[in-house]
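User: For my dataset I need records formatted as: sequence, then structure tokens, nothing else. Please produce one.
Assistant:
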Amino acid sequence: MTSESSLMNETIQCPLCLGEGELKRSEVLDRLGVKDFARVAQLSAEEAFRLLLTKHKQDEQNVWLRFESELAKRTSEIKQFHRDDLHALAARTKDLEAAAKVAEQQKTLEIQHANRRVEDSLREAAELRERNQVLEVEMSKVARVGKREEMDFAEEAGSWPGICVSQKLPKNGDYILSYRDPSGAPLEPRMLVDNKHKQSVDEGDIDKLVRDAKERSISIAVLLAREENQLRQHDKQCRWGCKDGIWVLRTTRQWLPVISMY
């Protein structure tokens, strides 16, 4: 009994911790010669998961690499297949751009040309208006001069001895001249006078004078110019002439008084 009590009270050293007093679970199991299957299982699971995750990432990366490679391959094939079409389309696009540029330039030139034509037309219209105004002034002057000369002719003819002059005729000639007797009464033959103020007389003036003389039943007509240079060479060579039964005298105001005296 005493020996059992002494054995129970005797202190012995722990064979596992060797007096350290603290051991990890893995150390205890290791010293007992027993493996920590739970830890091994946990580590194996973590390693398996890590390996699985790594493989999954590699597979995913490989899939993307294959996809990118296939995409590049298909893109290259499509480009190669449509290369001629793309070249033709690019050439067509360049042609259209060039044509559009040419059309724009042509349109600009046409607009400029049209503007120049409008400016020229406006300038010509302004010049024509100025010319018309000048011509109207000149014609007004000529008309006034002609009217004054006709009035001067009437006054001058009225002063010729033995000559009777009518009032200014409204149409078919300008004046009618005739000789007068001592009592002042007009005598036959009468003469139809047409004063010409134009630069040069022509055959149409002769024809009109003949028609006017016929209308008035007068057998002698006088084409009276202001100056000699208004008459044609034929008029100068043939002062007297008969046309359609009417005797026509072609002369100037300078010579008419002399002719009338005879």
